[in-house]
Amino acid sequence: MWKKVGHCLGLNKKKRVTAFLGAGSSIEIGGPLATDLTSKVRNKKQIFQGKNVDFINNIAKTLNNSYKNNQGNFEDIFHVLEMLTSLNRSWRAETAKKYKTPISAFVKKNNVDYFNDDLILLAKKDLIEEIADEIYRYDYNYDPKNQHKWYNDFWNKGNSRFNWDIYTLNYDTCIEKSLPVYKDGFERIDEGFCRFNPRDIVETNDSRIVHLHGSILYGYPKFRSSNKYALEDSFEDLYKYQSYNEAKATWFGRSTNTAQSSDEAIAGPIITGLRKSDKLLHYPYSLYNHLFNFSLLTSSRLLIVGYSFGDLHYNSWLNSMLRLHGKNRRIVLITMADEKEWHCDPAVMSWLNHDTFSFVSRSFNDFNPFKSLSFNSPLVSEDGCARLYLCGFKEAAENHGMDIINFLSS
Distance between CA atoms of 390 and 393, rounded to whole angstroms? Predict the structure, then answer.
């Protein structure tokens, strides 16, 4: 049945391989670590009423005091900012039920310094801008012909053998700069920017590039006159611009959307925070996430790069590969691990969290996939259907690139 459905969607014209990219996939082309982004966000002071206010950093300090032995990151901070807005508006008597989060009836302010609406709004804007500016920095410096040729070549060598369905959690456009031909569903309109056409990406026979959580080129429409798509589009539907500065100029000064729980859930061009699944209801995100799930269902070939398995939403889909494809599966996971830290007991290795172990165990069809007493990269499942590269993306692409591509093609 699924083959028939796949044929209707144009999936059977050429072999397709699903790729899923986490933040770690961009580190070796200049991308920041989550700790780097968190530091930048914390160092950004809010210029409020003519004064420098350490609002974001104070929130981070309060979070870290609560977490004790762990540190919060920029996504935790953004979630707090959304929750502060939700509570603040919920406590107003005149607020309609639709915008009142139920928990607000049971909690009270314990520090009024955190509940200034204007300061919270400024902090959210500053946080998003700091992240986006840092993404743009390495995106602008991406050098596919020289310094980052290894990255460019890997995707193109794969593309010569099959079509990619690339699903990325990153906001950069380095993949787009690497592949000469691809579809993302956006079509240029006479306003000078691009509008999303679902059929364009569903029915394509080309490779796909899908930003599951946004892109620095996404923005809201700014029409020269009236919006002729006003009755077709949702208020939160996103468009695509030619440059980061054009896109960013549309980001702020809009009302934000609300989750089913009546909490604020800002679904913008860059999705962050801890309520991501509430922010995937509009184009292109709604279709993008459907396509990702469908790709995992219809293709037995999966490449995962630089993903730490921190998103429960996507983990539930990725963990289905063994069930869906059995011995036909071809799974490659590329990550970075310290050889000196290797141990046959998974609990000893700091890089291996519970959700990563769960995925590797399922992919390998083995309750104990790390039984080796010595460090090996790649680590190969006993049935030969799954591989784990522990050397990082650059070394894997340069030294094992064709082996990976041949394996995914088999």
Answer: 9
CA distances 301 to 78, 297, 358, Å, are: 35, 10, 19
Structural domains of the chain, with CATH: 2-30+144-186+199-213+274-409 (3.40.50), 35-140 (no CATH)
What pLDDT, in 10s, does the model give residues 103-138? 999 999 888 999 999 999 999 999 999 999 999 999
Q: Give the SS3 label for residue 59.
A: helix
Kindly state the greatest CA–CA separation across the chain: 67
* Residue with tokens 């540190």, as numbered in its chain: 71
Question: Which residue type sits at 266?
Answer: I
Q: Do 35 and 312 form a contact (C-beta atoms < 8 A)?
A: no
Strand 51-53 relative to strand 186-188, pairing:
unpaired
Select from 215, 99, 208 the least CA-distant residue to 162: 208
Token pair listed for 270: 């860059």
Question: Which tokens belong to 356?
Answer: 């990563």
Q: Is the peptide bond before 284 cis (omega within 30 degrees of 0)?
A: yes
Beta-carbon contacts of residue 218 (< 8 Å; ≥ 6 apart):
211, 238, 239, 240, 241, 247, 269, 270
Per-residue pLDDT, 56: 98
Give the pairing of strands 301-305 and 330-334. parallel
Between CA 6 and CA 63 the distance in angstroms is 46
- Among residues 77, 88, 74, 95, which one has the least CA distance to residue 116? 88
Residue range 165-204, pLDDT digits in tens: 999 999 999 999 999 999 999 999 988 899 999 999 999 9
Could you tell me which residues are beta bridge partners of residue 52?
A: 47
- Residue 265 phi, psi (nearest 5): -145, 90
Tokens 């082309």 found at = 29
